[in-house]
């Protein structure tokens, strides 16, 4: 008696996979059909889901410049939320800096790192800003770091765990939100995956 | 294939390719369990375990400075593409060192070629299902690889021919994929082919019987 249950499982697997794929394609076609009926003409809504327009904000950078998110349209934006005391943020900062130096211009990307200044563990405003300054120097960061002293952007973006990073495409729509630290390789692949 | 999707479990974000690989490992482990003696699924499990450990911790090698500066980088990151290759190397060394203990026989050789072929095919097909790539590359990958796999596992008993045919098929398929020939999956495939041939040479067995007894 031939024992060939394994092969049988493999064949069933193949059938299941091809079946799933065909169904995916049919669903995709339907989506395109309904989209072409005029739905896509609607204004996209403001929100945090993929495809939404992210809430706009204007915050002041460490260097004293005002930066408005919506004015960056035309560039891909990596919007990172962080704090100086957060270990995974420290782990990803050198990677973000590396990526920024090597690819930002080439890939038409701006990295905006919003410091959750209200959540910094110093007592006075000035001390908080000092901590952020020291942090920036110790990691030699060159991308803009914005301060969020009232946690307004932090609330708008519902940042619960840090780091949280939103990837916004050049049309100004959210493509993805990542919770947890990224390395340069991951960062590059997320950026490459959006328009 | 390009990775276009990511899966988040709390603060851990995994690319779809990593998820596909983990699921493929599990599926292949089950198939080996059913098709061959339990021992071979065990050998496969050990190899997978070594691969994952080396891949994860090879960040020490690929980004030594960061790990020294921030030891917790070890927790958050992995060795990336280089880590994948180091993992495969570690697996082949492990197989070589424990060759006497494992003692590859006819069934072992068959299990080895099943493991090599099935892991790659399952991985490739899952990557297609989980990501969004150009349709023609997806269709070619899915259909060619699944038909090739079933055909080889069913009909081809000479291991070296089976592995050669498979690797050759995969290279042809890669031509139609967005990343082309220069992707890690192809490099890994060639190394696995060499490992398979090596294991076969080790025992001198030339024919497998697909685990049929």
Describe the protein.
- The complex is a heterodimer of chains A (195) and B (213).
- Chain A is an alpha/beta fold and 195 residues long.
- Chain A has two domains: 2-37; 58-192, Glutaredoxin, CATH 3.40.30.10.
- Chain A has five helices and seven strands; from the N terminus they run αβββαβαβαββα.
- In chain A, strands 2-1-5-4-3-6-7 form a seven-stranded mixed β-sheet, with helices on one face.
- In chain A, helix 2 crosses helix 5 (184-192).
- Chain A is elongated and about 70 Å long.
- The N and C termini of chain A lie far apart (57 Å).
- The relative contact order of chain A is 0.17.
- Chain B is mainly alpha-helical and 213 residues long.
- Chain B has one domain.
- In chain B, strands 1-2 form a two-stranded antiparallel ribbon.
- In chain B, helix 10 (159-175) runs antiparallel to helix 11.
- The longest helix of chain B has 25 residues, at 106-130.
- The chains are: A alpha/beta (195), B mainly alpha (213).
- The A-B interface holds A 2-7, 9-11, 13-14, 17-18, 20-21, 24-25, 87-88, 90-92, 94-95, 161, 176, 178-183, 185-186, 189-190, 192-193 and B 2-4, 6, 8, 10-13, 15, 27, 30-32, 34-36, 63, 66, 69-70, 72-73, 76-77, 80-81, 114, 118, 122, 125-126, 128-129, 135, 138, 142-143, 146, 149-150, 153-154, 210-213.
State the name of the first-level CATH class of the largest domain in chain A: Alpha Beta
Count of DSSP strands of chain B? 2
Distance between the termini of chain A: 57 Å
Low-confidence segments of chain A, ≥5 residues, pLDDT <50?
none
Q: Estimate the strand proportion of chain B.
A: under 5%
Care to count the β-strands of chain A?
A: 7
In one word, what is the shape of chain A? elongated
Quick overview:
The complex is a heterodimer of chains A (195) and B (213). By secondary structure, chain A is of the alpha/beta class.
What order do the helices and strands come in, and which of them pair?
The complex is a heterodimer of chains A (195) and B (213).
Chain A: H1 5-36, E1 58-61, E2 66-68, E3 76-82, H2 87-103, E4 109-115, H3 125-139, E5 145-147, H4 152-156, E6 164-168, E7 174-179, H5 184-192
Parallel strand pairs in A: 3-4, 4-5
Antiparallel strand pairs in A: 1-2, 1-5, 3-6, 6-7
Helix pairs in contact in A: 2-5
Chain B: E1 6-9, E2 12-15, H1 16-35, H2 38-57, H3 59-62, H4 64-69, H5 73-76, H6 80-97, H7 99-102, H8 106-130, H9 135-155, H10 159-175, H11 184-203
Antiparallel strand pairs in B: 1-2
